[in-house]
Amino acid sequence: MITIRKTSEESITALTSREVESQDVTEVVAEILADVKQNGDEAIRAYTKKFDGAKLAELHVSEAEISSAIQETTPEFLAVLEQAKQNIQQFHEKQVQRGFITTDEQGTVMGQRVIPLEKVGVYVPGGTAAYPSTVLMDVLPAKIAGVSKIVMITPPNAEGKIPTAILAAAKIAGVDEIYKVGGAQGVAALAYGTESLPKVDKIVGPGNIFVATAKRMVYGLVDIDMIAGPSDVLIVADESANPRWLAADLLAQAEHDALAQAILVTTNEELAQAVQVELQAQLDALPRKEIAQHSIDNNGKLIVAKDIEEALAIANQVAPEHLELCVAEPFSLLGKVKHAGSVFLGHYTPEVLGDYFAGPNHTLPTEGTARFSSPLSVDDFIKKSSYLYYSKEALHTVANQVIDFAEMEGLSGHARSMRVRKEEL
What range does the domain containing 415 cover? Predict the structure, then answer.
């Protein structure tokens, strides 16, 4: 049973520590990247057979396969996907940036252009679960940004098939090309290009340690969104919270991954005790009990804080991926939250709303990186380019200042570039 701990007895650092994944796969991933770079599709097929058990003649997912997936998906779930798409689009459309231009009377023109990326690769995990939500969350902001081509990769099962829900979500989101490839080899294919897969400008989407390591290693050749670690949730709760609901929210996060972290910080010890009982009762009925049990046993925390200010201080130190404010007056606390990927306000806004349906992106900074990074957004699929124009008169006005600046830095060639123009003005 998970232990209840108090801030009066332990440091915040000790209270919130988590089991970390210490496996170093750098050498293995480096070999995979080099192999795919040199041998292309041949290497992809070999790794797909080795890791996924699938022998593939064709890596590309055909239109017939996509149509079949749509037919096999229930109309009810297709309607859910369409409504989620609408919610996600409405939220992300408000993130669209515009360029600007400035002028003055002397004849200068300066501005900034907002330009969408041309080609983006979206990685959708396979393994123990299918994630059509990840398809929507990662593809729709790219579509809104104006990305020309979106290439999705996801690992096949042993029969060489992709889950129908994944393909249905990809069709609804507007993915241009889909390939049956996962792991570090998939990241390599997107970074370098192969006979079948195009080289992209950016790779987004979560994955296991091999995928995360591969993304880190190809960064610079291509851009990436973030290095996603195990998921986490921190719940701040007062006496008005429902212990059954809190336990369910903690387990919803714990069932993701044995390394996931679920923390409850409350000002009420009786509430913590009630959640403790509920956790065990609900665990016993959970299909993914083994995963969730490991997460709760090793990384789960029930913490009693002396007051709500201390509870928020703990939340800000942890900088959680997901922060639930299960309190009577959640909006009164929102302004005090400094570090969180996404904040869920009140008793009727569980984190699972954000996972699937509400609209804000569920691709969020993990492992405390909310201190300096942000959720995936339309901004991740654009770049900015500045431009400037000076008239003859405007250049003459500033020529001496630019020459002085260049000479101060010892760059006489820079100074000459300006001086030769000044001499003829």
Answer: 391-424
